[in-house]
Amino acid sequence: MARRLWPLVLPMFAMFHATSHGGAFGWADLLAAAFIALAIARTALYMQRGRTLVDPDGITVRRALTERTRAWSAIYDIRAEPVHNASRYDRHWLTYVYDTDGRRLLLPHLDDWQLDNPPAEAAGLLEAGVPYRGMAWARQPEVEALIRQRAAHRRAWQWAFYGALIVFGCMTVLSIGLLFSSDGSPMALLTMLVPLGSFVLFAALFHAGWKYLVPRDQQEV
User: Fold this and answer.
1) What are the b/e assignments for 138-160, b being 16+ CB within 10 Å?
2) pLDDT tens digits along 7-29
3) Which of 12, 56, 59, 126 is the most exposed place for a label (fewest CB within 10 A)?
């Protein structure tokens, strides 16, 4: 989710950058335009190439520019997970394949936009993979611990990004205020360096306390 917000943040920065320079078209505007163009191109490629391919060798995920394969022997679980706090227009179920290291990989189009029952589809994939995996699916406490830890660290990155985004907004307001109350405003310092520094600080703090960020539905019972 955090990555989807960058195309929104950059045009905001470009707008305020142009305001502070009398409407001149500067490097920040070019950067924002480039990121927007890349985001549109990536979305178009994903819509054309995005696939989840299943065969006797394993599961292959094809995305906009990359392709990853997980062999059945390296797959630990396939889970359809609810998307918490999703709006009525967003997907409410996403399906992930987890490997034996606790890493997860999103399976394109295995969601409630494409399927009536994503959990049943995930269960069907598990059943189909048993003959090729050579063993039944079973919970492993050490892998479950890795899954919880990685989930907490993903949340730490998200919270650090949101914290930096709030700092960015505050610095933007401060910069605009300085434009009208003083001779100038250190726009680049306030809207770039300060948010980046806050992101590093938030990330360090949240990662250090990752045990408190384990999602409730993945905590040990």
Assistant:
1) eeeeebbebbbbbbbbebbeebb
2) 445 555 555 555 555 544 566 66
3) 56
